C-alpha cells in the first residue's frame, strides 16, 4: 500500500498534523510531526498580500495601529500614525475598494480584517488612479452590525472620544458616527531669534538682532463632528453617499514674552501675540461604481465641501502700535471624477477618466488692511491609463492634460498642464519584488497665495501674496527592492527623488524700517532625495517582532536660501505577544527635514521613544503608553532659516517631547449574522480657505 502526501502552501495559518503510525503490509512506518506553515506575506508584480495574525488584530486599536504591528515592508508608520511608503510619499487607504478617511480607520472592527493588499499604480479603476494604495479586505456577512467606542486621554490635557455604529440588512448598510476632541495646553509657542539686514537711504546697512523670549503660552482647542453614511452594494452596483460636518474652534492660542534688541535700537518690551479661529465645515462625498459586464465598468465620485473660516490675531508690544488683523472666508469646492474602464483580457486594461474641479473663495480682511479677495478656480482634466500584467512583470503608463482657468479679482489666467505616470514592477517570485516609477505633473498654487492684500503682523514684518504666480513643475522618480525569504524575515531598500521647476518661493524684500515677505516666481531650484532600508525579524513563532529602519534625507534649496543639507535617521521597534498581553518599545532618532519647498526653513526634531503595555480580547482593548520618561522640559523642535536680508531661528515649546502617559480604550460589541464590516462613517475634512497666510 502506498500513500502520497501533497502539501500546498496558501495564505493560511499553520496546520499541524500529529504523529501517526501507518502500517504498510508487514512494515510499520512512523511519520514525524509535519507542519504546514502558511505564507502570510506574498509579493506579486501587481499586488502584495499580507495576512494579519489573531494576536496582531486583537492587540491593535485602529487600522493604522494594525499596519504598524504588521510591519508591512513597503510601508512606514510614523510615531504619530501617519502612513507613507518607505520614501515618505503619501498612501491612500481603501476598505473593500471604497476610499477610507482617517476616522474610517479608527472605527474599523479589526477582528473582521481578512487580509491587506498593497498596490503601486494599480490597474483597478475602483482605486481612482491613486499611485500607492493599501486595501483592507473585510469579512462579509448577511445582516447585523456592531457598535464601537474609542477614547484616549493623556497627561497633557488632551483627549478624544468617538462612537461608531453600523447596521446592515441585505444590500443596505447604514453608518452613524460622532466624535469630540479637546486640547488644553499651557506650554506652547517658542523663543524666536531674528537677524535683520536693512539697506538705508544713505547707502548704509542697518544690522541688528531681535530676540523674543517666551514667558508663557496657552492653547485651547475643541473639535466636534457627526457623520452619516449609506451604502448600497450588489455584485454589479456599489453606491455610497456620505454627509458630515465638522466644528473646529480654537478660542485662544496666545503667547506672552519679551523682546530685546542687539544693538539696542529700541528698549526691551513686553509682548503678547494672541490668535483665535473657528472653522465650520459641511461636506458630501459620493462613490458610484457600475460593472457593465466582465470587461467594462464606470466609476463616478462626486464631492462637495463648504467651509466657513473666521480668524483673529492681535500683536501688542510696549511703546508701539497694536496690530490687529481679522479675516472671514467662505469657500466652496465642487468636484467630480468620472472613469470608464475596459479590459482587454490578457492584453491589459485601459482606463479613461475626466476630472473636474471648481473652487471659490470669498475672503474679507479687516485690521491693518481692509480689503477683500475673490478667487475662482476651474480645472478640467482628461486622461488615459494603460496597464498590463504578463506573468512576473506589471507595467502602467498614464498621460493626461489639465485645463485651468483662474479668476482672481481683475486678473484672469487660462493655462494647460500635462501629467505623465510610468511604473514598472518585476516580481521573479513571491519572495522578491523590484519597482521603479516616474511621475510628472504641475502643482497649482493655493488660493491663499494669490492675495494682493498687504498685512502687517508686527512692527518689522508685513506679508502679501502674488496674483500672478503660475503652476510649478514637479518631477518625481523612485525605485525599491523588497525581499521576503520567509514569514520571519523581510527587508526593503529604496531611493526616491523629487525636483521642482519654476517654483514659487517666499522672499523677504527690505525697506528702511522693516521687511515685506512676498511670493516670487521663479525661485532657485529645489530638489530632495530619500534613500535607505528597513528590515523586520520575527522569532518564537512570531511572538517577538523586531524592526529597524535607516534612511537619509538630502535637500538642495536654491535662491533665495541657498543651502544643501543631509540628515541620517534611524528607528527601532520591538513587540512581544504573551497570551492577551502585548509589550512594545519604540525609538526614533532625531530627524532633519525641509519644512516645505516654498521656505528655506530646516527643521530638527528631538529623539522620541516610548514603551507600551496592552491587554486585549475580541471585545476590550486597553493600551497604556509612556513616552520620553527622562525628558521633563517643554523644548521641542528647532528650526533655522537664512536669507540675504533676514535670518530666523526658533526653539518651539510643546507637549510632544515632554514625558507623557497615555491611556487608550476601545470597546466593540457585534451582533447579527455575517454582517459586512468596514467602511465606517468618518469625519469629513474641509477645504483650504483663501485667507492669506
Quick gist of this model?
The protein has 693 residues and is mainly β. Helix content is 3%, strand content 66%.
Name the features.
Ferric Hydroxamate Uptake Protein, Chain A, domain 1; 693 residues; 22-stranded antiparallel β-barrel; 3% helix; single chain; six-stranded mixed beta sheet; disordered N terminus; globular; 3 helices; mainly beta
Structure commentary:
The chain is an all-beta fold and 693 residues long. It has a domain at 15-140: Ferric Hydroxamate Uptake Protein, Chain A, domain 1 (Beta Complex), CATH 2.170.130.10. The protein is built from 3 helices and 43 strands. A hairpin with a 2-residue loop joins strand 23 (371-390) and strand 24 (393-408). It is globular and about 80 Å long. The model is unreliable at 1-37 and 675-682 (pLDDT under 50).
Terminal CA distance: 83 Å
Structural class: mainly beta
User: What about the largest sheet?
Assistant: 22 strands, antiparallel, barrel
Please tell me how large the radius of gyration is.
28 Å
Rough shape? globular
* Number of DSSP-assigned strands: 43
Q: Looking at CATH, which topology of the domain at 15-140 would you report?
A: Ferric Hydroxamate Uptake Protein, Chain A, domain 1
Helix content: under 10%
Any idea what the CATH superfamily of the domain at 15-140 is called?
TonB-dependent receptor, plug domain
Low-confidence stretches: 1-37, 675-682
CATH architecture title of the domain at 15-140: Beta Complex
CATH C-level of the domain at 15-140: Mainly Beta
Helix count, DSSP H or I runs of 4 or more residues: 3
Calculate the mean pLDDT score and round it.
Answer: 88
Strand percentage lies at: over 45%
